Structure formats: structure tokens, C-alpha cells
């Protein structure tokens, strides 16, 4: 099994951090997103949607989409459980992870991709070149700020995003918050619960993965 | 366990269809989205993100987000498996389901919500009132057409979306394609594989759920 990665990109970082929490090290192939390597025929054969991360299994099967990569890793290396231990916990983690991805991660991507000069004509990942929509950059900024406020509220009542235990939802939330800092949106000074949790997240060795 | 639903809405339909494929019937509570019931304090207590579907367990726990509701149902009623039987199949189903949700379902919602008159000020679900962005309606239309073309290609090489077996990815894809017809985007006449699969999907009793 190997991971197609791009070190600076936030999406494959979700899988690197997940692997690190499992104590796993697997071969990594860097894909040069800036150079457009992900849109070349050789890479599109691995993932027609032209995104990283991709996990390639020894039989040649390729799995894209960060959440699906994490699912595979969880199934073959259940310990420590990061997707939950019983039906209720699994569902609550899936719920929070989905919320963090859609309202946090994708909101940040919406803002960045629709305003960064280098992203002109690439407002969505993948092989279709979508033009930037300025109003969407603005909306993305509003959304990520709502997300951060909600996350602070949640972490005021729960030690981790999905409940009492660390889970994949913390990884997705953490990377979403750090990703937002790329566009200079940071947790407000008074977001005490979120800042305490962020400190804990940054102290985990997996945050360096 | 009961389901908070809104019969005409495509998102809770994913869970109804999933339940029907499992042969399960559970109490259903209709939420009047048109009347704004999902944004009233009583409903926001169940789901602060103001969306359906929501599953409420007997202990009062509430699970929102369609994919998380399906995860719960799969865990308590594993047969027939709709999220996969082994690690590889589970990951491939997660990958396809995620693709169908993001590039199909959400693309359709992007188009509809940004162009329908009745959706003014509600371009995203939930309690924050986002204004419509006309360019985003256009982009959503382009995206759903790309999705439909890709789905036809996929179904030319595989009997079901995620492989040899029917799975949740077929449910998400099917509801996304039917949802697109709300804005008059339908599979082209020559999309033979997709049309064959659609016929099979419409013949399943769960499609009426």
C-alpha cells in the first residue's frame, strides 16, 4: 500500500495524520500539484477526479477521497479506533466528520480557490477548469467563520469534536482550522475552548505528519 | 428510533431508501421545511444545523447528516450490507458515495438553491441566510452535467456505481440524478448505460420509499 500525497496540501494531510495516529508508516509518492502532475494522463489513470490523496493497494486498486482512504486504513488497522467503537459512537463521529468536512474544510477551499490569483480557472479541484466566482470567495469566508464559532461552542461542552474520545472528526476539524489560516482567518482571541483544543492538537506528534 | 423527514426533499429520501433496502420501517415525523419548521428552536435542539434527515434514538441521541444516519442503520442492521463487506469494498463504496454526494447531490443543490425564486436568502441549508449567487447556479448546472456524463461512463463498465454489488453509492447517485431533473437536467438520450441502470433503480421498491 502506498499514498499519493502533496506535502503542502490540506486534503492528503488528513490521511497522513490518520496514519500517524494509527502508528503506521507507508511509502509516500509526492504529486506536484503546482506543476499540474495530478491532471496528467498517468495520474488520471489512478484517480480520474485528479485529486490527492490516493491510496494504491498492492493489487493495484486505487482509493481516492480522504474519508474513503481513512475508512480503508481503519478497517485494516482497527487500533486505536478513530471511526468509533459502537453504532452510536460511529454515527456521531460520521456526523461530526461530515459537518467539519462540508462546513469547515470545503468552506475554506471555497474561499481560497475563488480568491487566490494562482487558482484562476481552477476554482474546484479536478480536471474541469471552473472559473473563480468572487461572491463565492466572500461566502466561503463567512462560512468558515461560522464554522469556527460553532466549533468553539462545541468544544466548550465536549473535550473532543465528536465526544469523549479523539476521532477522525478532530483531524478534519483541526486541518480545516489550520487551512483557514492560509486566508488569514484565525480563531478569535476569546475562543477559549477552541484555542485549548488547538493546543492539544498541535501537541500530538501526528500534527507534524 | 424515529426519523425526522420531509417527504419531498431529496436528502432525507437517501435515508428512507436505505431503510427500505434493509426492510426496516420506523416511525417518521414530517418536518415542514417550506413553513420553516426546521429553523424553529424546538427543531434546532434536535439538530443545530437545521437540516433533515435526523434520526432520534430511544435514549434521545440525535444523528443528522444522511451519511451518518445510514452508518447508524448499517451498524445496527448489517444485512443486507450496503456499506461493503470487506475493507477494500467498504473503501470503494465510501469513495463512490462521497463522489456522488459532493459532485452530484451538492452540485444539484448548488444549482437549484442559487436560482429558484423560493430559495432567495436560503442558498445553503441551515440557520444562516446566505444570498443566492447567480454564477454559482450556472456552475452547479455545469457540474451536474459532468457528473451525469461520468456516471454513464462508470455504469458502462460496472453494473452498480461502486462495483458488482448494489450499495449506498447507488442510492446517492440515483437520488442525485432524480434531483437534477427538478432543474430540468436529464440524462442525455444516448446515455445508454445510465438509462439502463436508472430503469433498474426505479424498479426497486425502495425507490418509492
Question: What do you see in this structure?
Answer:
The structure is a homodimer of 209-residue chains. Chain A has 7 helices and 4 strands, in the order βαβαββααααα. With 209 residues, chain A is of the alpha+beta class. Chain A has 2 domains: 75 residues, Glutaredoxin (3-Layer(aba) Sandwich); 122 residues, Up-down Bundle (Glutathione S-transferase Yfyf (Class Pi), Chain A, domain 2), CATH 1.20.1050. In chain A, strands 2-1-3-4 form a 4-stranded mixed beta sheet, covered by helices on one side. The longest helix of chain A is centred in the middle third of the chain and has 29 residues.
Tally of separate helices of chain A: 7
Identify the CATH class of the largest domain in chain A.
Mainly Alpha
Give the strand order, joined by hyphens, for the main sheet of chain A.
2-1-3-4
Strand content of chain A: 5-15%
Indicate the radius of gyration of chain A in whole angstroms: 17 Å
Shape of chain A: globular
Please provide the count of β strands of chain A: 4
Beginning-to-end CA distance, first to last residue of chain A: 18 Å
Domain count of chain A: the total is 2
| Oligomeric state of the chains present here | homodimer
Q: pLDDT below 50 for ≥5 consecutive residues: which ranges of chain A? A: none
In the CATH hierarchy, the third-tier topology of the largest domain in chain A is known as Glutathione S-transferase Yfyf (Class Pi), Chain A, domain 2
Largest interface comes to:
A-B, 39 and 39 residues
Q: Helix and strand succession of chain A?
A: EHEHEEHHHHH
Provide the residue-averaged pLDDT of chain A: 97
Helix share bin of chain A: 40-55%
What is the CATH architecture descriptor of the largest domain in chain A? Up-down Bundle
The largest β sheet of chain A comes out as:
4 strands, mixed
Amino acid at each position: 500500500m502506498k499514498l499519493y500525497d502533496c506535502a503542502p496540501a490540506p486534503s492528503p494531510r488528513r490521511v497522513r495524520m490518520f496514519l500517524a495516529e494509527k502508528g503506521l508508516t507507508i511509502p509516500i509518492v509526492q504529486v506536484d500539484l503546482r506543476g499540474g502532475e495530478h491532471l496528467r494522463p498517468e495520474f488520471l489513470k489512478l484517480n480520474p477526479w485528479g485529486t490527492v490523496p490516493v491510496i494504491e493497494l498492492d493489487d493495484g486498486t486505487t482509493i481516492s477521497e480522504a474519508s474513503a482512504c481513512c475508512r480503508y486504513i481503519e478497517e485494516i488497522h482497527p487500533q486505536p479506533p478513530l471511526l468509533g467503537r459502537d453504532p452510536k459512537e460511529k454515527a456521531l463521529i460520521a456526523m461530526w466528520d461530515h459537518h467539519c468536512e462540508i462546513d469547515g474544510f470545503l468552506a475554506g477551499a471555497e474561499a481560497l480557490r475563488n480568491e487566490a490569483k494562482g487558482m484562476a480557472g481552477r476554482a474546484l479541484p479536478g480536471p474541469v477548469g471552473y472559473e473563480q466566482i468572487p461572491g463565492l470567495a466572500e461566502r466561503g469566508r463567512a462560512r468558515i467563520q461560522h464554522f469556527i464559532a460553532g466549533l468553539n461552542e462545541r468544544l466548550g461542552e465536549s473535550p473532543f469534536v465528536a465526544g469523549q474520545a479523539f476521532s477522525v472528526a478532530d483531524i478534519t476539524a483541526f486541518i480545516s482550522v489550520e487551512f483557514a489560516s492560509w486566508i488569514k482567518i484565525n480563531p478569535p482571541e476569546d475562543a477559549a475552548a477552541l484555542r485549548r483544543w488547538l493546543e492539544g492538537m498541535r501537541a500530538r506528534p501526528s500534527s507534524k505528519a
